[in-house]
Amino acid sequence: MRVKNAFVICCLCLLLAGRAAAQSQQSAPALEAVQGRAFDFFWNETNGNTGLTKDRERNQALPDAGASTVASISATGYMLASLPIGVEHKWVSNRKAYERGLKTLRFVHDTLPNVHGFYYHFVDWGTGARIWNCELSSIDSALLALGALTAGEYWPHTEMQALATDIAARMDWHWMLTNGGALPEETAPCMGWEPQNGFLASRWKGYSEASYLYLLALGTPGDRGLPKESWNRWTFPTPVEEGYSVFGGPSPIFMAQMAPGYFDLRGLRDRQGRDWWTAWKNAHLADQAYCARKSKCRTYAAGFWGINAFDRPDGYGADSPIDGRNHGTVSPTAMLAGMAFTPERSRKSLNDLWALHDRIWGRYGFCNAFNLDKDWVDTDVIGIDLGMMLLLTENARSGLVWRLVKRSA
After folding, report:
1. What H or E segment, with its residue span, contains residue 58?
2. Burial 154-171 (b: 16+ CB within 10 A, else e)
3. For 115-126, what is each residue's pLDDT tens digit?
């Protein structure tokens, strides 16, 4: 049975309210170069035997480049979604892209350890073995499934689509919802599970990036999926920040960029009347406005924005556009992913980033993050950030991923 479906479950919880005008297509050579190098990451940093993609890698040709063996299932999902983009841009042949996707999905389907259809967050890219005693992740498993379904839709009626459909369909969201049967009235899925400790205490309540998780789980067939009440009971405030109504309050910008890489919700409202697309756009406008008025910060004063979850001078963490929760670090991928929401501002950001080309550019494009105040440039790129940027910029240019999503039935 095909999944009815991660891509069309708007019929379960969203009501059509008209379409906004499509964004004008952009094809600047600089953007093509940025997208191409992001694709290079997914192609080069994917294991040739397992098809698993590294979580991160060095962006410069340093002596230890390639030493990492840590893959993430979310980066692997974005790799799968990148394959149709690579074929359309002629960065890779249709045959090679299909072979790569098929190898990955065979390994994920038949070999990669899973429990009730969910996968460990971090795994060894050569063996698939769990790393760092990490959790079985509901949110990262969802990203893996969405990437698989997208690739499968690009090659319909093939083994790859059949494997992708089965991977998504066997995810037991009822198990993740009910804590193994102990919480029958719960409607918010758990964030994960560990073999040594059982279910994590945290659930997907309150505003976050989890809209794509809910949409995927609502479309899972049979008794494995979430009930529609899960969406209906998922509530959060909509405060005004920097003059814009945003979901949940100030938050890292990735929360407004993951779901729209796959789901085109322009012109739609859900049963509570929430306009997700406008709220995601407002999150970009609020981030930009916050950075614009913080002129004492050199990074923001130079016109940069994109406060995110990313590498920082003091280590990886999540910043927000609120005083005391950021220190001038910005995300190039976040600025460019905004192309789908604020195209003119993101095109300006691309030009501004290009002016720093000699400092922040590498083999996989712009670095993950930088901070002019601290004279710091990250040495790495991160797979999920490159994936968000690649999908959203491609949707802004051609709508490719959105079309694949809508075609799935």
Report:
1. strand 56-58
2. bbeeeebbebbbbbbbeb
3. 999 999 999 999
Number of CB atoms found within 10 A of residue 106's CB:
16
User: Measured between alpha carbons, how far is 34 from 143 in angstroms, rounded to an integer?
Assistant: 22
Banded pLDDT at 183 (limits 50, 70, 90): confident
How far apart, in whole angstroms, are the C-alpha atoms of residue 306 and residue 371?
12
Q: pLDDT, tens digit, for every residue of 134-157? A: 999 999 999 999 999 999 999 999
pTM (predicted TM-score):
0.93
The CA-atom distances, in angstroms, between 24 and each of 37, 132, 281, 344, 407 are: 23, 44, 16, 10, 22
Residue 66, CB-side half-sphere exposure with 13 Å CA sphere: 6
Helices (H), ranges, 263-304: 276-292, 298-301
At 49-82, the pLDDT tens digits run 999 999 999 998 765 655 789 999 999 999 999 9
> What residue type is assigned to position 183 of the chain?
L
The whole-angstrom separation of Cα 53 and Cα 34 is 19
